[in-house]
Amino acid sequence: MKLIYIASLILLISSCTNIPTEYKEPAELRVIEDTLYYKGEITGLMVLKALEMARHSRQPINKLHIDSPGGNARAGIIFGNWIHENKIKVTIENLCFSSCANYLFTSASSVHVLKGAIVGWHGGAFQQHWKLDLRWYEYLIPNRKASKLALANAALKPWKDEETAFFQLIGVDQKITTYGQLDRFNCQKQTGAAGWNYPIRDLHKLGITNVTSEDTELVLKNDKSEVTACRVSLSDN
């Protein structure tokens, strides 16, 4: 019995060594002079910290350098509202996808995309195709799929309302978040890319008029990330 207890204790101690000893925040933040640097996931907490850093900065912040795969949509809208309100100039470093593209790229007073950096959209509050997971027994419940979909749509309403108000405020076509999912534009489905982007001339049509890129156009892949995009050209349709 004593040997079993000792063996169990050794196993417990060894398993504890696999527990992380340090918490790593989902984004790295810093302020240098008039520029806020944000690298990582967009979360409510990290956006709050970023805006607090900007508020307490010795110099007024008028530039944002962003490198982000995206994250929480409603946190992205809060970040985007701050960018729009303060007329922030945004520089894209390496990656700006999902919520970053939806709400940060679109709200900037100007956007400069560094060489090789990738920008991509892949949906928003009004996308048509949501994954609805049903357990096996739920298929036996009459109208279960319809009722679960109704609950999901009700949960989406605050996001839809906030996103609609956001795009009305910044003067950008809200369908920028969903054009790539329409059948006539759906290069993502055809190519298996993580998302899509637009020719710079089409960004102008969508309401984003002050975009410059160190590449000829927004790239479809880059060397630092496995994330890929495909091209949706509104002008060709």
What does this structure look like?
It is a single chain. Strand 3, helix 3 (73-85) and strand 4 (89-97) form a beta-alpha-beta unit. The model is unreliable at 1-17 (pLDDT under 50). The longest helix is centred in the middle third of the chain and has 27 residues, at 144-170. The protein has a single domain, classed as 2-enoyl-CoA Hydratase, Chain A, domain 1. By secondary structure, the protein is of the alpha/beta class. Strands 1, 2, 3, 4, 5, 6 and 8 form a seven-stranded mixed sheet that branches. It has helices at residues 2-16, 44-55, 73-85, 99-105, 144-170, 187-191, 200-206, and strands at 27-32, 35-40, 63-68, 89-97, 110-113, 118-120, 195-197, 211-213, 229-231. It is globular and about 50 Å long.
Number of strands: 9
Low-confidence stretches: 1-17
Question: What fold name stands as the CATH topology?
Answer: 2-enoyl-CoA Hydratase, Chain A, domain 1
What would the principal axes of the Cα set say about the shape?
A: globular
Distance between the ends: 76 Å
The biggest beta sheet is recorded as: 7 strands, mixed
Counting H and I runs of at least 4 residues, what is the number of helices? 7
User: Which CATH architecture?
Assistant: Alpha-Beta Complex
**Taking all residues together, what is the mean pLDDT?**
86
How many domains comprise the coordinates?
A: 1
Rounded Rg: 22 Å
Helical/strand content category: alpha/beta
| Element-level helix/strand string | HEEHEHEHEEHHEHEE
Instruction: Specify the helix fraction band.
Output: 25-40%
Share in β-strands: 15-25%
CATH class: Alpha Beta
